[in-house]
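From the pipeline queue, job 12 of 40. The input is one protein chain; the requested action is below.

Action: predict structure.
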Amino acid sequence: MSRRFAGVGVGIAATRLRELADGAPAAAGELADVEFAFVATELRHDEQLARIRRGKRACVSCLITVAVGVLMIVSLISMVLLLFSLILHSTPY
């Protein structure tokens, strides 16, 4: 937890966090730092989840676009083959 807190700019040692969790008295500044760190890490986590959701949405959109493109190409090729087979089976006169 102290590493996550350090990632948001709050430097509290792991031993001190354990002491605070066990009920040791804390200064007002330490409590404010811990509350800020909790809120900041939660916001960072929410941003990361939102980034992942946007990435998934973009991947799904890209896959749908590619699938529709492949479907169109396959249907065009099948229409061309159908026309060629109809042309080859008709009499020239």
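Job complete. The two ends are 86 Å apart (CA to CA).
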